[in-house]
Amino acid sequence: MSKRYSVDDDSSNLDEMPLMMSEEGFENDENDYQTLPRARVNRRRRGLGWFLMGGWKVLCGSCCDCLSHICWRRKELKARTVWLGCPEKCEEKHPKNAIKNQKYNFFTFVPGVLYQQFKFFLNLYFLVVACSQFVPSLKIGYLYTYWAPLAFVMAVTMMREAVDEVRRFRRDKEMNSQLYSKLTMRGKIQVKSSDIQVGDLIIVEKNQRIPADMIFLRTSEKTGACFIRTDQLDGETDWKLKVAVCCTQRLPAVGDLFSIRAFVYAQRPQLDIHSFEGNFTREDSDPQIHESLSIENSLWASTVVASGTVIGVVIYTGKETRSVLNTSHAKNKVGLLDLELNRLTKALFLAQVVLSVVMIALQGFLGPWFRNLFRFVVLFSYIIPISLRVNLDMGKSAYGWMIMKDENIPGTVVRTSTIPEELGRLVYLLTDKTGTLTQNEMVFKRLHLGTVSYGTDTMDEIQSHIIQSYALVPPQQTSGTASGTTPVRKTQTSAPKVRKSVSSRIHEAVKAIALCHNVTPVYESHANGNGERETESAEADQDYIDDNRTYQASSPDEVALVQWTESVGLTLVNRDLQTLQLKTPSGQILSFSILQIFPFTSESKRMGIIVREESTGDITFYMKGADVAMASIVQYNDWLEEECGNMAREGLRTLVVAKKSLSEEQYQDFENRYTQAKLSIHDRSLKVAAVVESLERELELLCLTGVEDQLQADVRPTLELLRNAGIKIWMLTGDKLETATCIAKSSHLVSRNQDIHVFRPVSNRGEAHLELNAFRRKHDCALVISGDSLEVCLKYYEHEFVELACQCPAVVCCRCSPTQKAQIVTLLQQHTDNRTCAIGDGGNDVSMIQAADCGIGIEGKEGKQASLAADFSITQFKHIGRLLMVHGRNSYKRSAALGQFVMHRGMIISTMQAVFSSIFYFASVPLYQGFLMVGYATIYTMFPVFSLVLDQDVKPEMALLYPELYKDLTKGRSLSFKTFLIWVLISVYQGGILMYGALVLFESEFVHVVAISFTALILTELLMVALTIRTWHWLMVVAEFFSLGCYLASLAFLNEYFDLSFITTWPFLWKVSAITLVSCLPLYIIKYLKRKFSPPSYSKLSS
Known about the structure:
9-stranded antiparallel beta sheet; 45% helix; Phospholipid-transporting ATPase; ATPase-coupled intramembrane lipid transporter activity; 17% strand; nucleotide-binding; alpha+beta; disordered N terminus; elongated; ATP hydrolysis activity
């Protein structure tokens, strides 16, 4: 008996069903499916082990969260009524309109920095050891040997943090101090951005940043609309058209805003930057005036006014503005290498305690054994060297300096100096599209008429056809007369069966492209002597000068199309809300009345316009859109689908253009039904769509256009390089699905032979279930998904979705909000445990950049916001290849070698101490005292060990030529428990040889043991550095000889530790040489044999 499931949003049903079910199984409950491991099943059991392994951190963290939640209860965001120009009428307190990017304030700086430092086990351990030296019975050596290095590390960290904080403070102060004009009863006054309140009327000039979220009341533009630039909010460089509230725009003067009683009702502040719902009400008129407010009446903070002057009423300030709600707080980033070293230091600490207990046990737990145990712990504290942090931090600064000095990637800035090693461990790269992969510059490439196609090299033919078409029109005919008709009309009125000539088809296609759009020509005003704007005068005289005309539209594709029609002779010269004017090659002006506009939406994927030509009275409905939307509404043809495919393969963005001629009766009938639908209360959008659809039938197909969004320099080879390096690339963009897919193909993010699975829009659990099953059956195909569908999948099937998506060679997420981008980064971090890198260039990428383990910002057309928030700032996308392959590799390899060598330096001396103590009746007495220990960790070995930051295993050219070498780095083999154990064995062997050798070979006095073993120890360390180095640098040689020279020179002053008369004898020299040889020679032999019989992958290349 088969049981049927209904596809609805019933959670109880779906919870019992496994996701990995076939679509038939969804209907018929078949049992031939496999199930994915559910995220909910493998919850770890919590016990003592969990608590010790890090559970204590989780518990402490949740306690702190509870306390902070109680202390700082977040204010609930509410809808509000805002009276125009009356901030004092606000019912409740709203946040201050100040930008704040600082991590600390004056009081929290010191505690905050100290907490960030001492939450690391390494630093906390040194603090405890240093404090123990204040207890007389535990005192081992001089206080300065413990406190000086710790104080140095803390001072360096605090200075670095303080400099960063001061920079942030200055940037914030600059933004908060910007002056704006505020309208009051007494006229205009200047206010700082941070002093603006909800209800204020603010005047924003052209090219000025909008300081808070406002409702657009008035503009100086005659049309009652203005353009704003939103690149810092949503990353799109095209200008957006905003419309002023009709009631306030119609007022005779600006001052009248205070003579009316009006208020704005605004919904509660929310994240969505693409929607807004509110109402405008004027109370003092009879009857009351109500206007509904939508996104086109809003002016969000951080956008910039691009045309005219605007006046708005502030509705949201500070933390409640859309831009701040969409910005995540910067977190303190910690590199994976630092976490690995932290784990190793915990293992060393355990070894240290075990060693101390063994010593006490061999002693027989005699006397005050507990005190002796602590003395041994302090005695062996050199196992964990404090110089580890100092060396690594200095190394990081050195890598940062090398990156900024690299001539191959000029303009690169390292803003977070603590994580350069992360560049060598990346598995996922999440990139923005607009401005990052592309230049966001559209170029018209192709016009296809069905039988004939024109490319960039044949555009002059189109131009000559257009000149010819308009030359036939009598020049006396002006836009007002209706005497003559264009040759196009003649061909139209004659029998429609006759095939049109190519010339008339080109003419119609170009005319359609020149009319069907949302583009407005803007004339730059020349600063004339009187300082008045010349824009108006230019419009009045119809004196449209080509030089100072620029086009503005909500999409750069539209601008490219209109610029192209201008280049072939048909120029858009004027546009307002009712009319549109074109100029022919002969200079004649054609006027058209705009009767209706149907704007582009992501659902309809097309836009339409109905115009009436004033000279002839002809009404025409023009439409253009994506091929998927237009194929069903144009007349039958056999070429459209094939040509769209061809253009898409070339990476062109295609648009299908069509038209339909309407009689006056047809149009009147349509207008009546359309107005009726627009006034209906219920299902308004559905009714309007139905009326428009009645018009969209049997359109005459005019042409197919191809526009190219030019890619950034060398994007294709760079993406190829990253893919070969084993890095998975995800493209997260706010752009349309078609555009995103197109760029994914043209940039070779998706290779030519790969399939693309476009995830169908889903709105509930059942749909998501089916769609994920469909996606599961696809193998090795790229995924394209929209932000809305992604949200639904993550709500119900987070674990399953991420698991499937991570198997894809490439993923494209389109229509993503800034918050969603950050959410995807966090998801990958949680589910894969791999390192992520985010790269972007606009303000909308900041959240993603800050959430990633490594954030890279590009200084581009979209401003500097992304590059300032990033850890690394580059000037071009192609630089990322060298940044990761060369600098990422070197930073990681060098830090791994440096970290392990510094540990080896501590372990070898602790081994010697253990051998010494065990021979001398387990006494907790230090082997080397005072300056010998300080000197050993600093002047005698510091320079050669630190010179490892200049080492490289592969030449930069090789690393770029063979990106596959990068895959090894992501496995983390340069620093692992295996390599660490090898270093432990080396340390134990060398420490034992040095100590036993010195004890066996010394003859008379104990002082000789110290002299022989210490000198052999210094020589061993210098030789071990030489053994570790893979590529010599002249500074390394200098460091080796300088350190040796320092040691020899200091022997003259170390008479309290050494017997100077013994040091200058032959027995001393041969004993030291013999011990050093026995400790180092076997390691050199092993290294040689390993190199010969099992060489690493990179050495095969370099040979």
